[in-house]
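Hey,

The postdoc asked me to send both predictions to you directly instead of through the lab channel. I've kept everything plain text so nothing gets mangled by the mail client. Protein one:
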Amino acid sequence: MEKYKPLPEGLTIRSSPIHDQGVFATRFLPRGTELGMSHVQWGGHIFRTPLGGFLNHSDTPNCSKSKIRVNNFEDPKATYNYHKWNITVIEDIKPGQELTLEYTFYKI
């Protein structure tokens, strides 16, 4: 049985100079690296994964998120559909560097 890992390989959580705690690279992450899911929207609620919960905001982020709609087309009786956001590295990140994201969920 595989051990649960709350963050993708090569990432860790530690104290951040931006705010409280943040996600930091423990290895080189080249531009284009897919890091996985950060948020899920089910109905009117947005849920964060550990990755999404610790990424700090920056006006000049080194990661971006993409929204994906998930439907079950294989079972027409299934009624679920939801959105999820995946994180992608948009500039090379060196070991020890904090990963950042521009927050857009909470803008009014």
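Protein two:
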Amino acid sequence: MQIVILGLSITSSWGNGHAVTYRSLVRGLSERGHDVLFLERDKPWYAENRDLPKPPFGRTRLYDSVKELKDKYRDDIRRADLVIVGSYVPEGVTVGEFVTSVAGGVTAFYDIDTPVTLSKLDRGDTEYLSRALVMRYDLYLSFTGGPTLTRLRRHYHAREPRALYCSVDPSAYYPESRECQWDMGYLGTWSDDRQPALDRLMLDPARQNSALRFAVAGSLYPEALVWPQNVDRISHLPPVQHREFYNSQRFTLNITRADMVRAGYSPSVRLFEAAACGIPIISDVWDGLGELFTIGSEILVARSSAESLSYLNDITEKERIAMGKRARARVLAEHTASRRAEQLENYLTDVAGRAAFGSRAAV
């Protein structure tokens, strides 16, 4: 198939979680034989921090404005079997209206921020999506599954809401024998609604046990934030260094945005990356987590600093390694880039088939 994706960024992971998701998906689609064109709005903050300026899979092109997008890529969008517009694309409503007007194939909105998007729509915020545009897309691909899919259909009148979670590229994330530098690591951009959980599940345990070592990697943290002495700070960690980071810790911490916790069924790509590396995960708690990993066997959940500390202090090395292996096996079976590409193919086939049936029924 010919597929066009208009996304926030694939060339830069600075300050966003979209790039690693798109990289994994485009790689998976390309390996399955599809011709993928990724179109990215050229923005200075990404131009200054491009950790993959020329992705080795698919084709990536930058555009400066909506006018340039229309002038240069109209024919690509018209000819494509599938055109995807992602959340947070600059001038996303204008882009979406253009795509749904000229595309000859199936159109889809890929919402990597579903709970945030729906909150915006409820407030009348149309930064990158409007209620009217929701109904124009043939397919609504959501990072959030579960009850949110029903809500999308009934309340927002999305035609075909389907879950398309993030995924991991197993050729980039796998176990390595490395010296253990940290007892627990956390990888995530600063977010004020995640900070209380970071305090509770990592920073408080760090203050309580100075013999343990911790690390927080991610950008945009306030300079005034005071870190415990046994917590190492890494201001930005490009994806090429994620595998080394995971494999240098005994456990990794997963913390979920408040909107995602309320919605449930919103896994972070960090879950799949760490698990693919065979590193056990200590996670906050939210609905749907147990459908992705078996709690207690493939993943641990913590609600307090005491629970975090108990895992770090009481789980034997044999138990830790076994848990990591079970989580890795689950990810390789269900959450790889190839598996997501296959799911997308099935969604497209289903939607295209429904459209064809509707045309025949009308005749």
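Summary for protein two, as requested: Residues 182-334 form a domain with the Rossmann fold fold (CATH 3.40.50.2000).

Thanks,
C.
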